[in-house]
Design goal:
single chain; 227 residues; alpha/beta; TIM Barrel; eight-stranded parallel beta barrel; binds SN-glycerol-3-phosphate
Length: 227
């Protein structure tokens, strides 16, 4: 399962890109707006941080297919590199997905809440579908179960479309979508740190340090080897 950063916070993206094995960054209009900065500069900065090879998913702000495609072409040219246009699952959105694919623009279908929305987007050529896990859980609709059925359905029907699970609040949600076969998740920078934190890990590292220093003092292995 691939990990992406769901954020437009430059410091958060920098940290995730430096320390975690991320495959890309995803944004949406809410995330972009929360950065309260120049839109074009923000996109340039994100691309500079992650480089051309990692995925950058940017959502359209248009609602009509022709306008969505126009924005997709402009964004692709501006953002460059490994670019995906995120398109919400509406009738105009579906039309735009097919049109974007015909123009060679990679597509992520977003705001997915049901299995049939995901199937329809896949048939329209979407490369990824993004179901919203926490928002489903909040209406007692079981986001993990939705992901499980989308994965199963894509496998049964031989569809190459991948699941990019989004909208997470807990590590348990991330773990559970991994266990039902989600191909990728997009999570906020804080959740990256929480996913790898464990007090017993810190306890083990402290014990390694103290056992070592009882014998070798302040010298690290590298210091001794380079003497
Ligand atoms: O990319 C979609 C995702 O960011 C939605 O997350 O936390 O607003 O439900 P959230």
């Amino acid at each position: 399962m691939l990990f992406m950063v769901d954020s437009a916070d430059i410091q958060g993206i920098k940290k995730c890109n430096e320390f975690f094995p991320i495959s890309g960054v995803t944004t949406n209009p809410t995330i972009i707006s929360s950065a309260k900065s120049d839109f074009k500069q923000l996109l340039r900065d994100i691309r500079d941080i992650i480089g051309d090879d990692k995925m950058l998913h940017v959502q359209t702000t248009a609602c009509v297919a022709d306008d969505i495609v126009r924005e997709a072409e402009l964004l692709r040219d501006f953002v460059g590199g490994n670019f995906y246009i995120k398109i919400p699952i509406t009738e105009e959105g579906l039309k735009a997905m097919s049109m974007c694919k015909a123009r060679g623009i990679k597509v992520t279908a977003t705001a997915i809440f049901t299995q049939q929305q995901a199937l329809m987007a896949a048939r329209a050529g979407a490369d990824f579908v993004a179901p919203y896990i926490n928002r489903l859980d909040n209406i007692i609709s079981d986001g993990v179960h939705v992901v499980e059925e989308i994965v199963k359905m894509f496998n049964m029907q031989g569809l190459k479309t991948k699941v990019l699970a989004a909208s997470f609040k807990t590590c348990e949600q991330v773990h559970k979508v991994a266990m039902v076969g989600a191909h990728s998740v997009t999570i906020n920078p804080d959740l990256f740190s929480t996913l790898i934190y464990h007090p017993l890990t810190m306890y083990a590292i402290d014990a390694f340090d103290s056992d070592w220093s009882m014998v070798y003092g302040n010298k690290k292995a590298g210091d001794i080897l380079s003497e």
